[in-house]
């Protein structure tokens, strides 16, 4: 479709560069031929909500406020899933476009991202709660615990582009397949091939579209589980250890990830950090202030002690979950490497080193900060 040049961002959940290196992707390769490819960084913690919001705002967590999938609110002693737009403290591309009467589309596999990101999008759909008109054309969406779901989500976005002609499109998927299948598996190759074909369909139908594709985080095989909260309590330190990867998709990761926020009294922070840094499997335990500086987090939304794991380790409550034998997960610094692919960019000199730069590029190209 000529004379239609939307900006399309695609976030492939859990798309570690090792998948891209191991699996044939002719359409993504075609993007690179008329664009670029680099390995960049995600935000830390390397979890879904944090990074999708960084992409859709172009900001660090210190600005937009989403520092985890799951949060303990110290003032009210509530524990909440960070799955509502009310928790986002910075303008999203959708809200900026709405203020300028620019039509937008959000197509997501996970409905939690519809709830988190979609408040000001013009047209919103998820594979878990699809629009009837899309189902009438594509059929019922596959389960989010399937290899086919993400292809359906991208195809739904293509239909919405054809129907509504939005200037901005955000497509974001689910990482069930990456949690379950390593890059060399037949299932992983099938999954990525389905995604690659769906991306190619958008390229073919809308040849003047600018398309950028990246990930919210990578993925690693995990073999070691540490219960940090239990260890601290065994050493006389009362605490609340919060699994920041936690969401309602327990099938994906069993709420086991490579990062923890630990809430405890200020008087025991130093002792706790010394104890945790001596543990095998802990890359680094630090104060909240150190974490704010290191990772651009927002101070009032994190614990007193912040911990990140080594590549083989996840943190979790051993009273609630046992270590799965085939766990693949994320959350630590070791899952921050992500691919960034750009196609048909108007500004070929723009620098992309983080996934959020896809968002800053869109903001600049659409003039969203101009009054």
- Total of DSSP H or I helical runs spanning 4+ residues: 15
In terms of structural class, how would the helical and strand content be classed? alpha/beta
Average of the residue pLDDT scores: 95
- Computed over alpha carbons, the radius of gyration is 20 Å
Written account of the structure:
This protein has 371 residues and is of the alpha/beta class. It folds into two domains: 7-218 and 336-365, Alkaline Phosphatase, subunit A; 222-326, Domain 2, Phosphonoacetate Hydrolase (Gyrase A, domain 2), CATH 3.30.1360.110. The protein is built from 15 helices and 17 strands. The chain has helices spanning 17-22, 26-33, 48-57, 61-64, 93-99, 111-117, 132-138, 149-164, 176-180, 186-205, 228-234, 250-253, 269-277, 288-295, 357-365, and strands at 7-11, 35-41, 70-73, 78-81, 104-108, 123-126, 168-172, 210-214, 220-221, 224-226, 240-243, 259-263, 282-287, 305-309, 313-315, 328-329, 337-343. The strands form five sheets. It has a seven-stranded mixed beta sheet, sandwiched between helices. Helix 6 (111-117) links the parallel strand 5 (104-108) and strand 6 (123-126). It is globular and about 65 Å long. The two termini are 31 Å apart.
């Amino acid at each position: 479709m000529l004379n239609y040049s939307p900006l399309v961002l695609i976030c492939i959940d859990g798309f570690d560069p090792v998948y891209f290196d191991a699996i044939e992707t002719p359409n993504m390769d075609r993007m690179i031929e008329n664009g670029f490819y680099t390995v960049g960084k995600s935000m830390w913690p390397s979890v879904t909500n944090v990074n999708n919001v960084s992409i859709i705002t172009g900001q660090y967590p210190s600005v937009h406020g989403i520092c985890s999938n799951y949060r303990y609110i110290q003032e009210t002693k509530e524990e909440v899933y960070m799955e509502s737009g009310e928790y986002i403290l910075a303008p999203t591309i959708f809200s900026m476009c709405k203020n300028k009467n620019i039509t937008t589309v959000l197509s997501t596999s996970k409905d939690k991202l519809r709830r988190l990101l979609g408040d000001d999008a013009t047209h919103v759909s998820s594979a878990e709660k699809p629009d009837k008109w899309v189902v009438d054309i594509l059929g019922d969406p596959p389960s989010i615990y399937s290899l086919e779901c993400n292809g359906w989500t991208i195809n739904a976005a293509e239909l919405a582009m054809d129907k509504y002609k939005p200037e901005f499109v955000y497509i974001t998927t689910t990482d069930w397949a990456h949690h379950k299948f390593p890059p060399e598996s037949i299932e992983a190759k099938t999954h990525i091939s389905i995604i690659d074909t769906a991306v190619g369909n958008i390229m073919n139908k809308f040849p003047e579209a600018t398309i950028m594709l990246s990930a919210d985080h990578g993925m690693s095989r995990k073999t070691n589980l540490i219960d940090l909260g239990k260890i601290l309590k065994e050493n006389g330190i009362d605490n609340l250890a919060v699994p920041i990867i936690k969401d309602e998709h327990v099938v994906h990761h069993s709420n086991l990830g490579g990062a923890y926020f630990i809430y405890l009294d200020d008087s025991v922070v130093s002792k706790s950090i010394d104890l945790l840094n001596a543990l095998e499997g802990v890359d680094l335990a630090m104060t909240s202030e150190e974490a704010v500086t290191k990772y651009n987090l927002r101070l009032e939304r994190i614990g007193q002690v912040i911990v990140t794991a080594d590549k083989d380790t996840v943190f979790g409550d051993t009273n609630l979950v046992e270590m799965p034998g085939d766990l693949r997960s994320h959350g630590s610094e070791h899952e921050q490497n992500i691919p960034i692919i750009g196609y048909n960019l108007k500004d070929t000199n723009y620098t992309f080193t983080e996934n959020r730069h896809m968002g800053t590029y869109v903001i600049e190209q659409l003039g969203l900060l101009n009054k």
